[in-house]
User: Fold Ferredoxin-NADP reductase from Methanooceanicella nereidis.
Amino acid sequence: MYRIISKTELAEYTVQFDIEAPEVAKKARPGQFVVVRIDEKGERIPLTIADTDTGKGTVTIVVQSVGKTTGQLCSMEAGGTIRDFAGPLGNPTEMVENSTVVCIGGGLGIAPVYPIAKELKSRGNRVLSIMGARSEPFLFWEDRMRKASDEVYIATDDGSKGKKGFVTDALLDIINSGVKVDRVIAIGPTIMMKNVAKTTKPYNIKTIVSLNPIMVDGTGMCGSCRVTVGGKMKFSCVDGPEFDGHEVDFDELMARQKFYRTEEKDAMDKYTHEGGECKCLPTRS
Ligand SMILES: Cc1cc2nc3c(=O)[nH]c(=O)nc-3n(C[C@H](O)[C@H](O)[C@H](O)COP(=O)(O)OP(=O)(O)OC[C@H]3O[C@@H](n4cnc5c(N)ncnc54)[C@H](O)[C@@H]3O)c2cc1C
Ligand code: FES
Assistant:
């Protein structure tokens, strides 16, 4: 059992948990994730390791409530326990030295991009970060991102904070200002990562994205996280989750992400209305 040490509401439908998991904390590297199962009957879901504290033996995860399991997790409180917390899984982010790297976090993607920016900066790279969200209430961890970056740019769809527009607009501003960008790392909704890769392609800037297909076992055995990269079949859990954004078949990924929509809705309906009693969870649509 893994104990929830603390719970913090970061933004609408978005919760930070610090989980007591000393072995995972000791081994985790930026870019890796855990597979969580709340209780014996629960489904397994992948969640990125957003931070660690090896002294306290804790792992930080940031969860957005989008369906049954994430909704159930977000309703848990400090002192509660999680049945399984397997990891660290996946490959760590490839680190570079003496480079200018633009780290882009869109929405929930701010959490997984943070540990990457932090390590890149600690290795002496110049880190320019772009944080994007629909509007200001969905932004979080600006203080952490500022510490982990040389410069931070903010873009919101409605202009409520920072530049009005998408993260790609802020990225183009950086490129057009004449900064020589060696690498871009983008994490966020699939459509955002697709558009970042499209933006950097004409400039030939290496672009890394972290893919989020449906995962079940996280060990390369079940095949559910299959993605096509450079025309070849890859399993995101063991070959990724990070890949060259210019090689990813994003359209296929987006189609596969919708594959289980009926089953996901059935699971949510069954859970929230079991025994005729309504316990609807607040989720972001
Ligand atoms: C490597 C990896 C790291 C992730 N890290 C985080 C994280 O740090 N925090 C976090 O909140 N979520 C993260 N996710 C997404 C998270 O695993 C899903 O939101 C979760 O599995 C949904 O389960 P559910 O039962 O709550 O919702 P479901 O009812 O299963 O799904 C609800 C909705 O979410 C969509 N969805 C399901 N799985 C995913 C997925 N893998 N990615 C995106 N959308 C999905 C469905 O298509 C559906 O529209 C990560 C996914 C991957 C692959
Ligand atoms: S999650 Fe099963 S193969 Fe990747």
In short: The two ends are 31 Å apart (CA to CA). The first strand starts at residue 2 and ends at 11. The mean pLDDT is 93.
